[in-house]
Design a protein that fits this description.
Blueprint: H1 2-22, H2 38-46, E1 50-51, E2 57-60, H3 75-79, E3 84-85, E4 91-93, H4 95-102, H5 126-129, E5 132-136, E6 139-142, H6 143-151, H7 155-158, H8 164-188, H9 194-219, H10 224-233, E7 239-240, E8 243-251, H11 254-265, H12 270-282, H13 286-289, E9 303-304, H14 312-319, E10 327-333, E11 336-346, E12 349-350, H15 357-383
Parallel strand pairs: 2-4
Antiparallel strand pairs: 1-2, 3-4, 5-6, 7-12, 8-9, 8-11, 10-11
């Protein structure tokens, strides 16, 4: 009996294993990460962020375009719209994909009420604009005035005044106080002061200029042909050879130049400490003297290795200076003898048209605006029949020091300080202002 029983048991065991192997495996969800509790499952079904059983919080993303980049080993999961970890360390999932696989219809979410701000606030109706929020001496301040003044500020600033008490604070401290001060100023007669009138006129002109430029800008469309033309005509802005920025001290004789160079090379720090003083004292190049001896012009400041703007001996001597701060010479040109100092070496510049497109758009737009604005101003000149008498400009003499402007009360400076006709004005040392005495009670 033992052997048949053993065979029977063995047969049952094999059959059980075989049967178990034939059972269909439970299909695992590719996208769904099981929620940790009923509340989190409800969040998942709403398509919002939820905490899964793996302890991770999954953030919803609407599409691949909106999904942050994945860490290297989870790029494929992201491309297949499966839950994945992003480079920022957070975990994301695609609710539509997960719920479709689970056969769950997403629950509609209630949109929470938002506080109105500058972006969401609706425009006021005419009836609302006319509502009165305050009166000053019988003059009404309307809702429309308060609305316009607050909403004319930048968005970040506007958010400060979302609450009622802040709006009332703005009404009191800005609008009402300004009206009170304006009324007081009118009564003192300060509104007739030339300074006030000048400021008002300047502001009016500035607003007109701004509005005209805004109108012009709206009509301008920069074409690729215009950009290419500008690029070719201003090639030096985009393509420049390697070059040096240097300074010089120009003197008449070689002996003087050698003495200056000896002073500069006597110790290592002398070139830095004494250069400008030596330029001021010795250089006969008046144009560069005020700039510390800086060579060239505003448009041609950099000395390239084969530069034809400067004389050849000068260019060769500059390029022999190996480091920034090095001095050299003396070298002779048609202008005299030069002692040189290297300031900086500029790298070569080579920007292609494609690389410069964004910059070219701005430059061509600015050029077009300036041209259109000038044409507009010239049309005004023709309209108002402008006439200029250049022969009378000679009567405008330049004083050694500017005249004292009229004070706020309209009075000019004291007669004792006025110059007699033909007198030479001497330099006047500035006088320190006297301290203001505090009023005693």
């Amino acid at each position: 009996m033992t052997r048949p029983v053993g065979k029977l048991l063995l047969f049952i065991l094999v059959a059980t294993v075989a049967t178990a192997g034939c059972k269909p495996k439970k299909k695992e969800a590719r996208h769904y990460v099981e929620a940790s509790n009923p509340q989190e499952k409800a969040n998942l079904e709403k398509g919002v962020g939820y905490v899964a059983k793996d302890g991770k919080r999954y953030i919803p993303v609407t599409s691949l375009k909106a999904a942050p980049l994945a860490i290297p080993d989870q790029k494929e999961r992201r491309s297949k719209m499966q839950p994945y970890q992003a480079k920022n360390g957070k975990y994301y999932y695609f609710p539509a994909q997960a719920l479709a696989e689970l056969g769950i219809a997403p629950k509609a979410m209630k949109t929470p009420p938002t506080k109105p701000d500058a972006k969401t606030a609706t425009k006021l109706s005419e009836a609302d604009r006319k509502q009165v929020v305050a009166t000053v001496n019988g003059e009404s301040i309307t809702v429309g005035e308060l609305y316009d003044m607050i909403n004319s500020r930048p968005p970040a600033w506007r958010r400060i005044f979302a609450k009622k008490e802040k709006k009332l604070e703005f009404l009191n401290n800005q609008i009402i106080v300004e009206k009170l001060l304006y009324d007081a100023a009118q009564k003192t007669g300060i509104i007739k002061d030339p300074v006030v009138q000048e400021a008002a006129n300047k502001r009016m002109v500035d607003l007109l200029r701004r509005d005209q430029i805004t109108k012009i800008r709206a009509t301008i469309k920069v074409s690729e042909d215009e950009m290419k033309k500008y690029y070719e005509e201003n090639k030096s802005q985009f393509s420049q050879p390697e070059g040096m920025i240097a300074a010089h001290i120009l003197v008449k004789t070689k002996a003087e130049a050698e003495t200056i160079l000896k002073t500069l090379t006597a110790d290592k720090g002398a070139a830095g400490r004494q250069w400008r003083a030596l330029v001021t004292k010795h250089s006969i190049d008046e144009e560069s003297k005020a700039k510390g001896g800086l060579l060239g012009t505003a448009k041609h400041r950099v000395v390239s290795e084969k530069d034809t703007f400067f004389e050849k001996p000068l260019v060769e001597a500059i390029w022999k200076l190996k480091k920034n701060g090095d001095v050299g010479g003396p070298v002779q040109t048609s202008k005299g003898w030069h002692v040189l100092k290297r300031y900086n070496k500029r790298k070569a510049l080579d920007i292609t048209f494609a690389q410069a497109k964004r910059r070219l758009t701005r430059l061509v737009e600015r050029q077009s605006i300036n041209k259109a604005y000038t044409e507009w101003v010239n049309s005004l000149k023709k309209k108002y029949n402008i006439k200029i008498f250049p022969e009378n400009v000679k009567y405008v003499q330049i004083l050694a020091e500017p005249e004292k402007p009229a004070s706020a009360t309209g009075h000019k400076h004291d007669e004792k300080n006025a110059m007699a006709p033909g007198a030479t004005k001497k330099a006047i040392k500035p006088v320190a202002p006297k301290p203001v005495m505090k009023a005693t009670k």
